[in-house]
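Changelog note: in this version the structure field was regenerated for every chain. One regenerated record is shown below for reference.
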Amino acid sequence: MTTDLYTTQLNAGTGMIDETRLLLYLWQPGMSTAELNRFALQSGQFPNITARRLYNLVKDGFAPRYLKNQGAPAQLLKATGEYLSGREFNQLLFLYTCRENRVLYDFVCEIYWNAYSSGKEKIGSEDALLFVTRANQDGKTVKPWSENTLQRVARYLTNSCADFGLLESGQKVSRKILPFRIESRVTVILAYDLHFAGQGDNAVLSHPDWALFGMERADVLDEFKRLGLQGWWIVQSAGDVTRIAWQYPSMEELIDGISKE
């Protein structure tokens, strides 16, 4: 994650799911942010977006989320896009967006899942505003936010959750909480992503990213055991120690395995 401090970067496009699909189609490995922006502008794929708005989408939305680490997220999404369902693909976008925007990451973990587990039916604008106001008071923002900024960020949070399917869509003051369960192949991709990043087996199981999907370590381990029966890995667990025999030595080979399902 780029920073633990909260920024207003979600302003670049909240979930921006449709725009991300188009930009991934246009993007090629090695293409810089400026080149992608120029190519997107010339493509005619964004007729209803101003040049300035498109620039902001590419520079502040798409690039930080998907072009970091030499474009590894974009390459993964581009390679798997035709094999994944819309829900699976959107959950990967959700993961990368949360990783890049700590304010959304924490809002999902602390507000959405607490509300979900406690049986609340809705999350309102006031919940999001209270969350960012407290964060501002606690010094979690890059700089102190004005009242107007607090209200805008609160709106970005609920809009983003609606984009990714955690809350109902529409312009509403209070949104219905929707069921949100990680898809099996998203579990596989996230697990291997953490593994290839150098995380040990037990660190993979305990990684904070699982909390974005409402999962604790025990939930993750149960899911690993279930998916192990499908051949994605072999799990050996005794007490608090778990060993995983990873079946794919690279992300490229994992993608090839997904394509053959």
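Spot check on this record: Residues 132 and 168 are 21 Å apart (CA to CA). The chain has a mean pLDDT of 95.
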